[in-house]
Automatic annotation (TrEMBL):
<keyword id="KW-0456">Lyase</keyword>
<dbReference type="InterPro" id="IPR032466">
    <property type="entry name" value="Metal_Hydrolase"/>
</dbReference>
<dbReference type="InterPro" id="IPR006680">
    <property type="entry name" value="Amidohydro-rel"/>
</dbReference>
<protein>
    <submittedName>
        <fullName>Amidohydrolase 2</fullName>
    </submittedName>
</protein>
<comment type="similarity">
    <text>Belongs to the metallo-dependent hydrolases superfamily.</text>
</comment>
<dbReference type="GO" id="GO:0016831">
    <property type="term" value="F:carboxy-lyase activity"/>
</dbReference>
<dbReference type="Pfam" id="PF04909">
    <property type="entry name" value="Amidohydro_2"/>
</dbReference>
<dbReference type="GO" id="GO:0005829">
    <property type="term" value="C:cytosol"/>
</dbReference>
<dbReference type="InterPro" id="IPR032465">
    <property type="entry name" value="ACMSD"/>
</dbReference>
<keyword id="KW-0210">Decarboxylase</keyword>
<dbReference type="GO" id="GO:0019748">
    <property type="term" value="P:secondary metabolic process"/>
</dbReference>
<feature type="domain" description="Amidohydrolase-related">
    <location>
        <begin position="7"/>
        <end position="379"/>
    </location>
</feature>
<dbReference type="GO" id="GO:0016787">
    <property type="term" value="F:hydrolase activity"/>
</dbReference>
Length: 380
């Protein structure tokens, strides 16, 4: 099927330097690299359970995670013209403070070099059909001073292929309503860098009945419910702490269509209006001045990684149109179910959902698939 420009804004890569760093570690997170079989990333403490054979812990990380040629082949197989690559969790949040700046610079330079080398032979040509790469950079969030994070944000503007940054919902470790994040929000706003906000570890196992339940159902509950709810809670905490009042032009792209935020926005707004602790209702807490609906229309973009028409309709309704929705694949996660298959069900499901939701609206489909990302991220 012939498609307009397609830009993938949600696609992950572990650069070789990052893989080497994880392989050298002995504590979570680390990569177990057996003599035979696939390496495995042990990312959660619960995955490092001694009762689980080490070759079954965590998740396999094959070449699709680190080999950029595999990424390009995937793009060509699925009609993707440009990808904005980024680290997946755990990013750099686990690093010792003294190491954070050095590793952030190294990883971000690797991302820039990867994009530059890939795009070198076709620079100046239209994006359509070129298999180009851009990147969201990682931040040294564990650094001992916010100034180090701010300086890296400012340095990123000197890297031509960096189009924003990726951050987990834990921020500096205490959530996104942490006042210490103020300088980071200010720097992102000043540098006009988009923040790609991605869930980090999901909700605690207790939310799903304890570790025994999640073991019975694999990763379905944490991924299907934990990640989206984590995003919803994180952004709501930002709203309640008046981040969007203080930084009204801060721009954020939310993974997985914003979790449940589009669906629950009205309920969140109603609860804010009726909260007696807020000054406007006679309390002593300065509540948010801007409504969640205004923030959704002016500060927030959503990726379209939601796999269904109901979710896409809610996402479009939240932003009052399709100009704030962007296509994504979440590659290399959710690979084909059967060995030898080249077509990824996780990607084709996204395509089909967009086509069905906006059937007969060619301009809307073109905007979601690539036009919005090209415009917002200045990819041309």
């Amino acid at each position: 099927m012939s498609r307009p420009l397609v830009v993938d804004v949600h696609t992950h890569v572990y650069p070789p330097s990052y893989m080497a760093m994880l392989r050298a570690r002995k504590t979570v997170p680390y990569i177990h690299d057996p003599a035979t079989g696939e390496p495995r990333l042990i990312i959660l403490s619960s995955d490092d359970d001694p009762s689980i054979p080490i070759d079954e812990r965590g998740r396999p990380v094959d070449t699709s995670y680190s080999d950029i040629n595999v990424k390009i082949s995937f793009m060509q197989e699925h009609g993707i013209d440009s990808s904005v690559i980024s680290l997946a969790n755990p990013w750099l949040d686990f690093l010792e403070p003294a190491e954070a700046q050095q590793w952030a610079q190294r990883i971000n330079n690797d991302l820039e070099e990867t994009c530059a080398q890939n795009n070198k032979s076709t620079e100046g040509l239209p994006l359509k059909g070129r298999s180009t790469l851009f990147a969201f950079a990682a931040l040294p969030l564990s650094a001992p001073s916010p100034d180090i994070i701010v300086n890296e944000i400012k340095r990123l503007k000197t890297l031509p292929h960096i189009r924003g940054v990726i951050m987990g919902t834990s921020g500096l470790g205490n959530g996104l309503d942490d006042e210490k994040l103020g300088p980071v929000w200010a720097a992102l706003d000043e540098m006009q860098l988009l923040l790609f906000l991605h869930p980090h570890y999901g909700l605690p196992n207790e939310a799903f009945g304890g570790s025994g339940v999640t073991n019975r159902y694999g990763h379905v509950l944490p991924l299907a419910l934990g990640f989206p709810l984590e995003t919803t809670i994180a952004v709501t905490r930002m709203l309640l702490s008046r981040v969007f009042d203080k930084f009204p032009t801060l721009q954020i792209l939310l993974a997985h269509s914003g979790g449940t935020l589009p669906f629950l926005a009205g309920r969140i707004e109603s609860c804010i209006m009726h909260e007696r602790k807020f000054v406007d209702n006679g309390g002593d807490v300065p509540g948010p001045k801007r409504s969640i609906w205004e923030v959704l229309k002016t500060n927030i973009f959503l990726d379209a990684v939601v796999y269904g028409t109901a979710g896409l309709k809610a996402a479009a309704a939240a932003g009052e149109g399709t100009d704030r929705l962007m296509f994504g694949t979440d590659h290399p996660f959710f690979p084909p179910l059967n060995e030898g298959e080249k077509e990824w069900l996780s990607v084709t499901t996204n395509y089909k959902a967009i086509d069905k939701t906006f059937e007969g609206q060619q301009e809307a489909v073109a905007a979601i698939l690539g036009g919005n990302a090209a415009r917002v991220l200045k990819l041309e």
